[in-house]
Amino acid sequence: MFQRARQTVLHKKADMKTSDLNVALEQAAGAVNGFLSEVLSEERRPPRLIEAMRHAVFAGGKRMRPFLVIESARLFGVEGALPLTVAAALEAIHCYSLVHDDLPAMDDDDLRRGQPTVHRAYDEATAILAGDALLTLAFSLLTAPGLKVTAGKRVKLIGALAGAAGIDGMVGGQMLDLAAEGRFAANGKPQRLGERAVRRLQALKTGALIEFAVTAGAILAPRATTAEKKALRIYGRELGLAFQIKDDLLDVEGEVALVGKALAKDAEAGKGTLVSLLGIDGARRELDRATETGRQAVFAAFGGRAGMLAALLDFNRARNH
C-alpha cells in the first residue's frame, strides 16, 4: 500500500482561493479513501465486520483531519506515503469515535452524514466491534513494517495520537460531556457548566484530534523550530474551537438535509455550549476571533506557505454542514 501512495503538490499563496482549497480537500480525501479502501478488504476477514467498518468510513465527510496532516507535513517538505498513512490512521480513529458516539448508550443518533448510523444499518454489537476495529487499525497502520519512518518519530506519532484519542483527549472529553448531561447525577439533571468548563470539555472532545492533525507535520519534519511548533499548536487549538463553535451554531440554525444528522439535540440534552452561554451573536464573535488568531499564528511562522491552512479557517466559518 505504501509504494502506491501518491500526493499532488499545489502551489501555496497567502490569498488562497476557495476553489484551490476545495481541490486540495478533494485530493486529500481521494488519497485517504483509496488508502483505506485498500486496507479494508474482506480477504480472510469477517465480511459483516468489514462491511460495517466501510459503512462508517465511507459515509462521506470532508476528511478535514487527514487534510490537516497532509498539509502540515507539506509545510516541511514531507509528502507521499508517510503523511498519508498518518492521515488514514487519524481518520480511522475519528470514524471509530463517531460510530461509538452514535450508539444508544451515548448520543443515540439514527443519522450520520445523511445515512443510517452503523448500529441502525447493522446492529449494536456489530457497531461496537466496528468501532473497536477502527481504533486498533489506526495503531496497526502506524506500526506497519513498510512505513519508512525512524523509530523515534514512530514512537512520537503513536504517543501523540494515543494521547489525543484517549483519557487526556477525546475519550476524556466525551466522559465530561456525558457527565454534563446529568447522566451520573442522582437527580439526572444536566450540570450548569461555566464557560471555562465548556471550553475544556470541547478542547478535549473535539480539539485534541484536530491539534494532533496539525502538529503531526512537525513530528514528521526533518527539523521544526520551536516557533513553528508553537504556531501549529495555536492554529490547531483555535481551529478546534472554531470547528466546535460552528457545529454548535449549525445545531441551532442548520438544516437537517444539509447537516446530515438530527439537530437541536444539544438543547434537548441540556448540554452547555458556547452558543448557549454566549448567545448566537457572541458565539459568532468568538468564531471570528478564533479564526483570526489561528490565521495570524500560521502566517507569522510560515508566511504564504500557510495559505491553505488559513483558507480552511475561512471554509469552516462559512460551511453549512
CATH architecture classification: Orthogonal Bundle
Outline, from the CA principal axes? globular
Number of helices: 14
Instruction: Give average pLDDT, whole number.
Output: 90
Query: If you consult CATH, what is the topology?
Result: Farnesyl Diphosphate Synthase
CA-based gyration radius: 19 Å
| Major β-sheet profile | 2 strands, antiparallel
How much helix, percentage-wise, in residues?
55-70%
Q: Any idea what the CATH superfamily is called?
A: Farnesyl Diphosphate Synthase
Characterization of the model:
Helices cover 68% and strands 1% of the residues. It has 321 residues and is mainly α. The chain has one domain (18-318): Farnesyl Diphosphate Synthase (Orthogonal Bundle), CATH 1.10.600. It has a two-stranded antiparallel ribbon. A hairpin with a 2-residue loop joins strand 1 (111-112) and strand 2. Helix 1 (18-39) crosses helix 14 (307-318) and helix 10 (226-253) packs antiparallel against helix 13. The model is unreliable at 1-14 (pLDDT under 50).
Briefly characterize the structure.
Helix content is 68%, strand content 1%. It is mainly alpha-helical and 321 residues long.
Summarize the helices and strands and which ones pair or pack.
Layout: H1 18-39, H2 47-57, H3 64-74, H4 81-101, E1 111-112, E2 115-116, H5 118-121, H6 124-142, H7 151-165, H8 170-180, H9 195-220, H10 226-253, H11 256-259, H12 265-269, H13 274-302, H14 307-318
Antiparallel strand pairs: 1-2
